[in-house]
Design goal:
This protein is α/β, with parallel strands linked by helices and 226 residues long. 45% of the residues lie in helices and 20% in strands. It has one domain (6-191): Spore Coat Polysaccharide Biosynthesis Protein SpsA, Chain A (Alpha-Beta Complex), CATH 3.90.550. It has 11 helices and 8 strands. The longest helix is centred in the last third of the chain and has 17 residues, at 198-214.
Length: 226
């Protein structure tokens, strides 16, 4: 593979149940020249073994999503980086959409999100997430953040913190340029909301965001999240 334009970094931890379907969905993008990098955070299942045949690079990295994504970015050959959660699927033609946004002058951006779940309440949650992101210029990891490699390096990559790393990265990137808000939707799993309870999860995440805005440390918030 010679200098692909787009590198997709997938941080994983105990994702044996989903990683193959996620990576198989990226096969058309790989065929068009995208590079796929999987960074495992010391899984105790077969995640890394399952990922290796379906990725260009599959490595063991330091545990912690921010550290794993930075480790993947360090291995990337592309001029554009896209960070994808293991339980999230990109829309058809995502590579073309990202590159078109970059060619139009964007430094970074994200997709709208659709949450796959039984409850119709999560359709409203997704709509509000997309609206909030569009108004605030802040993206979450669920929205598949993409960024020019040079811009990512200019802000120091993801901050080394255990929670809210996507929020902090967005804040730093927003100082350089507003995001490209792509209306095409990634599909992400609703398992987090369903496992904890939808209203409980919504309340918890808003509470944690408020505490982060107030100045509480990411380490404190990570303990509260757990």
């Amino acid at each position: 593979m010679i200098n692909p334009v787009l590198s997709i970094v997938v941080p994983v931890l105990n994702e044996a149940a989903t990683i193959q379907s996620t990576l198989q969905s990226l096969a058309p993008l790989r065929a068009r020249g995208a590079q796929v990098i999987v960074v495992d955070g010391a899984s105790t299942d077969d995640t890394l073994d399952l990922a290796q045949p379906l990725a260009d690079i599959a490595i063991q990295g330091p545990r912690g999503r921010a550290r794993q994504m930075n480790a993947g970015a360090a291995k990337a050959q592309g001029s554009v980086l896209l960070f994808l959660h293991a339980d999230t699927l990109l829309p058809v033609g995502a590579d073309a959409l990202v590159l078109a946004a970059m060619q139009a002058g964007a430094k970074w951006g994200r997709f709208d999100v659709h949450i796959d779940a039984r409850s119709p309440m999560l359709a409203l949650v997704a709509t509000l997430m997309n609206l909030r992101s569009r108004i605030s210029g802040i993206a979450t990891g669920d929205q598949a953040i993409f960024v020019q490699r040079a811009t990512f390096e200019a802000v120091g990559g993801f901050p080394d913190q255990p929670l809210m790393e996507d929020i902090e990265l967005s804040k730093r990137l927003r100082r350089i340029a507003p995001p490209a808000n792509l209306r095409a939707r990634v599909r992400t799993s609703g398992r987090r909301w369903e496992a904890r309870g939808i209203w409980r999860t919504i309340g918890l995440m808003w509470f944690l965001r408020w505490r982060y805005w107030r100045g509480d440390s990411p380490e404190q918030l990570a303990r509260a999240y757990q």
